[in-house]
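Objective 1b: paired records.
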Amino acid sequence: MDRVFFTNSGSEAVEGALKLARIVAKQKPGGATKTRFLAMEHSFHGRTLGSLSITHPVKYREPFEPLIPGVEFARLNDVADLEAKFTDDVCAVIIEPIQGEGGIYPVTNEFWKRARALATQHGAVLIADEIQCGLGRTGKAFAYQRLEGLPDIVIVAKPLAGGLPLGALLAREEIAASFSPGLHGSTFGGGPLTCATGLTFLETMERKHLLANVQKRGAELKAGLKKLSAKFDFIREIRGEGLILGIDLDVEGAPYVAEALKQGLLINCTHDHILRLLPPYILTAQQVKEGLSKIESVLARTERPAPSAAVTSAPAEAQMLAAAR
């Protein structure tokens, strides 16, 4: 990526990406009708009007409808569905390389490559939403780096300023050039305090070799969780990479979250049945052992809830995996 525009949040960075995609299309011959966005099922991109419009779960969108028109959702990792919906009036396709709120679902290399090829073919931009999975979370600077093909726009935020409000919209030069002075702006985006903090975060990542630590601790944690999945038959799958991991259950996850908190372990639950783990980059090997021990205790001691109705709405590949098991 060649250029950067700083924002105050991930949602604001998403808004900037949507605006940039629209203006890139509009400046091309016949671009006036090139206004549609393709997003993914089970995606989450934010709570502002634009970012909400490309967020898939109905519970987030419905209270604020009508939202921005011209948005369609494709099934993640379903190449045929993507091809069927990717027409010449699409200005952008936006993908989380690993869906976070959606349940820790990594995009496949085949799907990503096809999205890249279709975006090029139709003169659209490929946007990587790395707000949750980027900036070291997977053990790489960006989660898309495990995939073949560069995005045109990358969105980052959450860890960038260590808890202070800072997001960023990154773009290739030929894309960024469509934002001439006055077309986009932010009063507080790129403020000196938050940017100084962001530099400190990036310098600390390098100095303390945190990417390597994320890779090592993530591998230990994932291996330990897979051992637990063999012990507890209500664990359907362990997904993720680095320190963004999901434990997919065939029962409701909320009781396990509550019990974990009692034991001093902070996790959360998404889609009612997927326990989401996002430990800090400075996690130690000893803390991995302690965490796994607590997770095992939580799974063993918690009264087993009823099967989760939400499982039936999980992405197709997860349902197929459950059926195979």
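Objective 1b, second protein:
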Amino acid sequence: MQKLNLSHITSLKLGITAGGQLAKMIVLAASNWDIKTYVMDADPACPAADQCTKFIQGSHANFDDVYNFGQQVDIITYEIESINVEALKKLKAEGKIILPNPDVLETIQDKGLQKQFFSQHNIPTAAFKLYNNKQAILQAIEANEISFPFVQKIRKGGYDGRGVAVVNRASEIHKLMDAPSVIEHKVAIRKEISVIAARNIQGEVSCFPAVEMEFNAKANLVEKLICPADISAEIASQCSQLANKLITAWDMVGLLAVELFLDHDNKVWVNEVAPRPHNSGHHTIESIVTSQFEQLLRAILDLPLGSVRQKMPAIMLNLLGEPGYEGEAIYEGLFEAMKIDGVKVHLYGKKITSPFRKMGHLTILAGTRVEAIEKVNQVKNLIKIIT
């Protein structure tokens, strides 16, 4: 792999595919070191477009767009999984630095290959089987190969709760999607946990403190996270060890967000992973010595990884578009929310809101976990995103 000359870091051209809120926050972190950031996205009004050094319009799913974008930069990273991996592999073969490795991305893009990787490396994960289509799943149910309750995940393209169906009983089989899928046993979840691991080129690994996630039942996406998680030191250590084991097994450079389940017997299961900054790490901007976005840069530029010491307890609250509203976004309640000590507001710059669209997030800081929860209860109904 070509080595970067970091003595000229201020002239480094960092390419980011695509241009959503994660890219925006990578760009903001890179600006602290005066790194030149190039962003490619199909939408010229994407969150990162106004923040980066150079914006290039193009589709992350299109081979030519991705390949041509790669020719303009020194190193490529990404903020979404659904990239044309063949273009990335060709760029890598020609000597372009792409981190995380496109071979890792290719595996993670397919939830079936993800699950097989977990099994091959003795990672605890819910029992699963792979099926090519809805008809095959129905036949397996009829033959008692699949028992209720179970979870269907389409193998490719699912994101933010899309492409997932929870089927608790026979009367719910209408939820099934007709696509190549993973069918897995539904774990009796007590808590959902996330750990973000970072690994640099030298193989140094560091894990952020475990966070506890709460999901919006309607949208099936993270609504709130709490750090530190309300789990024992032993469970927290298990979660970090699994994240470390996974990022090392993949020989991966960058960030790996590992979503885990804690069941009612206090057993930890790996749910799925993402090879990029993650919604569950947004609080790190204010509450951890090194944010996940700076840590990504440190990892892919082969710098020493930064401290992951927590400065104070924090809760991250996603700002979602209100149900029933679609159009130009209006933010109600910002003034009232910002009067509360420790409330930090991040707006992503998305002009158009729609039901449950991620429009921004709040980080709520406090001296204790209990105080942070009390503040969230004050602020969570203040801000509404309408039209």
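Residues 19 and 77 are 11 Å apart (CA to CA). The mean pLDDT is 94.
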